[in-house]
Recover the amino acids of this structure.
């Protein structure tokens, strides 16, 4: 296949390794400077110019979009998507991962555990927000920071308030986040490719620093992840729409807490620490997926008026329990079931003979009018109960 690596750093370790891995496997590969593309919307089809000439055909791109050019870089990636060129990371996925707040908002509804986080604007809401995430010491973060810059540990409310006020007056948006002390200045970086973790390392902060970034002097060692960490990393990347991602997790008392999902993870640290061929795994994955360029389902389906997507939940008293999908009558009503969620498992394209159980969730595509009656009432928001620390509970006998 013909691959283009979009990068402004042709000599960097990651770009060199990806290029070498592609060549080793007999692919044609070019490193193209992201900022030298011109997006061309003048013809009948979306097109791209590179250094003033019409771009040749490519089968796949590997976007390595730096933080400083997110807007232009994602515009170029989006243009490749419009041209049906395969990309492991979509423009939407890259943009979502760049904004720590946006990433948190998306991940939090899918049951991915994260450090408790708040986002406020008004001064009066700062102290209540700090209390809600667990009180000082508390972490304050710039929404678009990277390499540990813009991540501050505030020892008490007064300092936290002062830092937040200062940053806001400099027109910076900041997150307030629980300080996960039990992680002890360490975190896990899992390199996800497709639906597996191909390499993982633990980073440890240097001295009394709490940030474990290599750019802050952190050291790295290879780790074998247990199933929970591996599963969390893969799910987080999938939800963000990234097939190649570096997922950072703190080691919380109750398991992994996802901090961020990086869409252009550096390869040097992880390949050196693990001695694994991450670049090769990325190229192999792309070669297997190249026939499936990204399709924006929402965009394509929007033209079918009167049809839509809905989630139907099989409730205790419902007409469906114990019946097979075929007997459920959904197909007769012009409703197809795309996937069935049962507990933590997912059954894509469930067969007609599958027997429905209470609490199954069916992701359906069908006539909106037919589905309306099947959609449960919006659940009431549950009252929030403050969780007590484990050792505050009386012993059970
Ligand atoms: N809530 C937290 N609790 C404890 N340590 C944290 C927390 N958030 C960040 N850190 C530490 O700071 C480092 C940088 O934070 P991160 O959110 O990944 O920002 P960046 O994008 O700059 O790397 C992390 O790798 C971790 O070691
Ligand atoms: Mg980080």
């Amino acid at each position: 296949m013909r691959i283009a690596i979009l990068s402004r750093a042709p000599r960097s370790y990651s770009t060199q390794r990806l290029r070498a891995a592609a060549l080793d496997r007999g692919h044609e590969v070019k490193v193209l400077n992201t900022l030298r593309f011109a997006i061309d919307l003048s013809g009948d089809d979306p097109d791209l110019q590179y250094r003033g000439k019409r771009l040749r055909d490519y089968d796949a791109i590997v976007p390595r979009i730096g933080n400083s050019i997110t807007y232009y870089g994602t515009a170029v990636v989006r243009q490749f998507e419009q041209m049906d060129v395969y990309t492991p990371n979509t423009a939407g996925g890259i943009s979502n991962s760049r904004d720590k707040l946006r990433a948190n908002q998306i991940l939090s509804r899918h049951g991915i555990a994260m450090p408790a986080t708040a986002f406020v604007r008004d001064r009066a809401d700062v102290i209540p927000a700090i209390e809600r995430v667990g009180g000082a010491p508390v972490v304050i973060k710039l929404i678009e920071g990277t390499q540990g810059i813009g991540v501050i540990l505030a020892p008490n409310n007064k300092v936290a308030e002062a830092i937040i006020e200062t940053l806001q007056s400099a027109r910076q948006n900041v997150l307030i986040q629980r300080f996960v002390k039990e992680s002890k200045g360490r975190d896990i970086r899992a390199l996800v490719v497709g639906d597996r973790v191909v390499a993982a390392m633990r980073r440890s902060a240097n001295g009394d620093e709490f940030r474990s970034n290599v750019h802050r002097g952190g050291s790295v060692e290879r780790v074998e992840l247990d199933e929970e960490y591996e599963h969390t990393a893969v799910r987080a990347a999938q939800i963000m729409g990234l097939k190649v991602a570096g997922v950072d997790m703190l080691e919380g008392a109750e398991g992994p807490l996802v901090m961020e999902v990086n869409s252009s993870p550096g390869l040097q640290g992880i390949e050196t620490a693990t001695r694994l061929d991450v670049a090769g795994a990325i190229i192999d994955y792309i070669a297997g997926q190249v026939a499936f360029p990204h399709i924006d389902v929402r965009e394509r389906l929007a033209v079918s008026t009167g049809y839509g997507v809905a989630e139907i939940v099989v409730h205790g008293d419902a007409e469906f329990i114990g019946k097979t999908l075929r007997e459920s009558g959904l197909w007769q009503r012009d409703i197809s079931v795309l996937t069935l969620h049962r507990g933590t498992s997912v059954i894509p394209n469930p067969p007609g003979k599958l027997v429905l159980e209470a609490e199954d969730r069916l992701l359906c595509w069908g006539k909106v009018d037919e589905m309306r009656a099947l959609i449960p009432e919006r659940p009431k928001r549950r009252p929030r109960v403050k969780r007590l620390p484990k050792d505050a509970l009386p012993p059970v006998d």
User: Anything to note?
Assistant: The chain is about 25% helix and 30% strand. The longest strand covers residues 138-146. The pocket of adenosine-5'-diphosphate (ligand 1) is lined by residues 115, 139, 141, 145-149, 151, 177-180, 183, 187, 205, 210-213, 248, 250, 259-260 (CB under 6 Å). The CA atoms of residues 340 and 346 lie 6 Å apart.
